[in-house]
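PROTEIN DATA CARD
Card holder: N-acetylmuramoyl-L-alanine amidase
Chain length: 237
Origin: Streptomyces gottesmaniae
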Amino acid sequence: MGTRRASKNGSDGASASGGSDAGRRVGRRALLIGTAVAAVGTAVVARDELTRAWWRVPGVTKPRKDGEVDYTGAKWVAASDANWRLADRPDDFGIDMVIIHVTQGSFDSAVQVFQDPAHGAAAHYIVRKDGHVTQMIRELDVAYHAGNRDYNERSVGIEHEGFVEKPEDFTDEMYEASARLTARVCARYDIPLDREHILGHVEVPGTDHTDPGEGWDWDRYMKLVRAAAKAGTSTPA
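Structure generated from the sequence above:
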């Protein structure tokens, strides 16, 4: 989430690179399926159904279990399905980024808004001040978190409890837990451990958010991520 440059609230919104996922625009795969459907004379499919049509093709969707997490130790709490879209990553969209966010509120409030279908945005993970990690969207799927469709499709989003103007919210436990999580994600998808691939929400093209803010200690964080990787905590689950 984080603050916007003009305001402190709102969902991902449209982006310079193709618009908001939250608008559920028809994707390139859906268009292909739509063409095939039309060719066999099937009736017109509703917009949302067309958007999701290809995921119903047998053998495309990867196996899923209710409550399953991608990061060992994370607690599963499902986000509203209005705040993300079903995908089959990294087979359909390669994952090459981790994007760092700050909630601009409490952990509980972040969970609440991510469960709200009217919010239009959510991240894959939330890290609490005490280091607890909650997963709300599978890494397989595209979360509406970056305000840029291309970046959403290619990234895993991690929220952090607190406020950008209060760096004291970023506790030792939070930094360390988040670094272990990021190291694990990067190992799973062979993402380089550098600032070109681990970036803040503010660095996403077209965004109007400012998180994680000047108080986020990037030097410290990147050292912790690399240390976690070297320690072997980044071994894919």
